[in-house]
Amino acid sequence: AVAYVFQRPLTTALLDASAPAAALAWGGLYAALRAVSMQLMVYVRVKERAAYTVGTQSLELLVQLSLIAYVLLQGNADLTTVVRIMALTSLISPLVYLIGPASRVFTRPAWTQLSPMLVYGLPLLLSAAAGIILNVGDRYMVNLWYSAADVGTFGFASRISSTLNMLLIQGVTAAYGIVGLKSITAGRNDLQRRTIRHMAALYCWAALVISLASHDGLTVLIEYFRVDASYREAVPLVFWMCLGSVFFGLSQLVINSLVAAKKSRTISVVVVGSATLNLALNAVFIPWLGPIGAAYTTVISYAVFLLWSAIRVFQLEGISYRWERVI
After folding, report:
1. Alpha-carbon distance 80 to 263, whole Å?
2. Which phi and psi (to 5°) does residue 147 adopt?
3. Which of 193, 174, 201 is nearest to 310 (CA)?
4. How many whole angstroms separate alpha carbon 96 and alpha carbon 325?
5. Cβ count within 10 A of residue 252
6. N or C: at which end does the chain have fewer Cβ atoms within 10 angstroms?
7. CA gap 178, 149 in Å, rounded
8. How many alpha carbons lie under 13 Å from residue 221 in its C-beta half-sphere?
């Protein structure tokens, strides 16, 4: 509703005055439907229906990409059309979940749980807003001091490094969000320590591979797929942004202990504090060093996020992660 009512000022502030405002309105609907879908997906995952979850998400993605490819091939696509397709196809997952395992979610409301849910959930709203700043605020700050070409270079490096998050970190985080919470609730903290130790090694190796392959991969894109050669400037940023993703991925595993302990206020303080640090460092590093300064602040901010989360877990729950073994 906010995106629809304030579509023009939000479009001007977030994108550009020439960007179509309707795209942001449809984007708001897409975000709302995805939020509903994510809540239903968590319910289905708790029921350990992994195949149902994967099948539902794959169906939605297949329909979405097929329709976008069709309108692109027809030559009639613009930004608003693409976002509209994304919004409408995002109805698929909630409907499939409600027809299947989540069919009783809305038929048996637990009104007595409303107050505890609000007490737990409201701090997380602030955390979510701060998380957006932590994740994408650096791009807007690069745009304040540098040209669109520099923003494009930074964004391209971000997309390359995001393959680590997309192919590995998201899957591990989603799986551990169920298995890990159950083990922590049962008092078995050894699983979390082993998971963090093993994932630290795996994430770091993956980050190294992506960083080393980025130069050759970009060369192939430039020579055979007509990608602009100026994007070579993104290569030095990739390693640092991948390293930031490593710290982010590990922090998501550590945060599970705070989630299990229902410490939503602590989570909010850690996320807001890390986002504030990110903004302050960006204000210093970006004018001084350029886009690579934003990459440095990403690493520092996520490292602080991870360390701060681990310290709070140790203080509140007495869980030590034996960082000497992780390192």
Report:
1. 40
2. -80, 170
3. 193
4. 44
5. 21
6. C
7. 42
8. 15
What are the start-end ranges of the H helices in the chain? Answer: 2-5, 7-14, 21-46, 50-74, 79-89, 92-99, 114-145, 148-164, 170-185, 190-224, 235-260, 264-289, 291-317, 323-326
Cα dihedral sign, 104-109-112-116: positive
**CB 22: neighbour CB atoms within 10 A?**
18
Sequence-distant (≥ 6) Cβ neighbours of residue 270 within 8 angstroms: 305, 308, 309, 312
Q: CA 123, 247, 133: angle at the middle one, nearest 5?
A: 45
Question: Measured in whole angstroms, how far is the alpha carbon of residue 166 from the centre of its chain?
Answer: 9
Print pLDDT tens along the chain (327 aa). Answer: 676 666 667 666 666 656 667 777 888 888 888 888 877 877 777 676 777 887 888 898 899 889 988 888 887 777 788 888 888 999 998 888 888 877 766 556 666 766 777 776 677 777 777 777 777 788 888 888 888 888 888 888 888 888 888 888 887 887 777 777 777 777 777 777 888 888 889 999 999 999 999 889 888 888 888 878 888 888 899 999 999 999 999 988 888 788 777 788 888 888 889 989 999 999 999 999 988 999 999 999 999 999 998 888 888 767 666 666 666
Q: Which of 64, 70, 58 lies closest to 96 in space, CA to CA?
A: 58
This prediction's pTM? 0.80
